[in-house]
Amino acid sequence: MRDISARELKGHNILAVERFQDNTRWMIEFSVQRPCSYGSPGDEMRLFLTEDGYQAALHSQKRREIKIKRYARVIEGHVLDFKPDKRRRHP
């Protein structure tokens, strides 16, 4: 299986305007496991999220609708601390 970074991701482009919005705090890359509002099973996605959006994504992961592969903090448009998900060591 190829790494998620080598695939074409749906959702937000790495330079999406959402990345530079004042309330954006997180970037996540994930795969969709079950049909949900994020997409269809097998979709590989990237999203830039507010804190509320990030919490909603964590809840979707708990419901096994998505699996977060990587996450990073976003501060003033800068993507920081890009990390693979090691059994959900999210703050």
UniProtKB/TrEMBL annotation:
Entry-linked InterPro entries: DUF5720 (IPR043778)
Domain DUF5720, chain residue ranges per copy: 5-88
Pfam families found in the cross-reference section: DUF5720 (PF18987)
Protein's recorded name: DUF5720 domain-containing protein
